[in-house]
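User: Please work through this fold.
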Amino acid sequence: MEEGVRRWLVNISKWCPSPQDFSSALSLFPPSQRSSILRFIKSEDRKRALVSRLLQYALLHQVLGIPYEQISIKRTLEGKPYLECDKDVPEFPNFNFNVSHHGDYVAIASEPLCLVGLDMVSCTIPWKETVTEFIQNFSSYFSRLEWDFIIGAGNEEQMLVEFYRYWCLKEAYVKAIGSGLASGLDRVEFHHTGWTNINVKIDGTFSPLWKFWLLDLGEKHYISIARGHPRSATESYKNTMKRVEFSKDEYFAGLHLPDVSFVLQTAEQLISILQDAKRA
């Protein structure tokens, strides 16, 4: 199953395509994907959306060996992306993936059995608000314990970083279960030792069925990964899965797979992968 654990990352600030290069990359995708990219007004948002699709299609092709023309990515009612595919891959009994972008980076993570949630944050200073005013807008999503750690972190910069770390983990959880933004953030409370050995309480009870990681990418970018049980997913997301129930041994084999480091890819590398796939 370990081959199904992938972590890819693209620094989009390093990719400055000409209009022709952008159009060429866009043409790799079916019309429905093109329109979802072009609906964005700002060029940076279009670039993030395009790189997100490049990551999804390239990873699915490389890991699962699906011919390019058979890759079909859909979304649940809540907006969770999933692979619509009849191909059965026994070593990956519940293959799923998640994407995230913020600031300079776009990333993707996949898991062969567990739910995977991925979130990325760039600790940007609020505009027209103090840090205290900004984070106060989100206070209802944190437990008293979490909130005390945030407001007691030190100066405003340290408070902002602490806020984003907790927020990043909470988003990874809700993205893993497919519930959509903000829904369920207040159900989870995170405990950690120096942001390692991260444990979670769900509805007040520690859960041994989840694992979390929080990574510092540098330049005030953080990325979090969640692994959890498929039965925790929303109903609409469960309906997209090949399997939801696993024996205890099966599930814990997936939960305790080694995590892997993020592999830095370039947009050019991903485009090359897809161009080769289309010609195959």
Observations:
- The chain has nine helices and twelve strands.
- The radius of gyration is 19 Å.
- The mean pLDDT is 94.
- The longest helix spans residues 43-64.
